[in-house]
Amino acid sequence: MKKINVKEYVPPYLDPFIEDEDLVTGVSFASGATGLDPLTSTINMVIPMVDQLEMFSNYIRKLEILVGKAEANNILNNSLFLVATGSDDFVDDYFTYPMRKIQYDLSSYTNFLVAEASTFIQVNV
C-alpha cells in the first residue's frame, strides 16, 4: 500500500477522536448497508448516500481551513474516491421487502438503480 501512498486503515469521518492528520490523509464517509435506492437506507436505518455526500462537503471545508484552499485542492485532485453500493438494494430491499417488487420487476428495478447511480455521479462530480 505504501507504493501508492494509501493508508492501511482509513478512519471514519464521524469518529469522535479523529485527528487533523486523518483529515489530511483521508477518511471514510461510508455507512454499511446504504444503497442507491433511498428506501434501502431507511429500511436499514443507516446514513443515506445524500447525507454521506453532505459530510464530504463539510470535510472539504474543514480541509481548506486546515491546509488552505490551494493545498486542499491539491489533496483532492490527487485523491482516490471509491463508491461501492448496490448489493444491499437487492438483498435488503428488493428481495426482502415486497414494496419494490410491487413497483418494479427485476429488470426495471435494475434500471432504476442505474438511473440513481447516474444521477448521483452527474450531480456530484
Architecture overview:
The chain is an all-alpha fold. 59% of the residues lie in helices and 0% in strands. The protein contains seven helices and no strands. It has helices at 20-25, 38-44, 49-67, 69-77, 87-94, 98-103, 106-124.
Question: Helicity range of the residues?
Answer: 55-70%
> Which descriptor suits the 3D outline?
elongated
SSE sequence, one letter per element: HHHHHHH
Helix-and-strand structural type:
mainly alpha
Using only C-alpha atoms, the radius of gyration works out to: 17 Å
Strand content: under 5%
N-end to C-end Cα span: 26 Å
Quote the average pLDDT.
90
Number of helices: 7
Q: Report the strand count.
A: 0
Profile the largest sheet. Answer: none
Model regions low in confidence, pLDDT < 50 over at least 5 residues: none
Topology at a glance:
Elements: H1 20-25, H2 38-44, H3 49-67, H4 69-77, H5 87-94, H6 98-103, H7 106-124
Helix pairs in contact: 2-5, 3-4
Brief characterization of the structure:
The chain is an all-alpha fold and 125 residues long. It contains seven helices and no strands.
What characteristics describe this protein?
single chain, mainly alpha, 7 helices, elongated
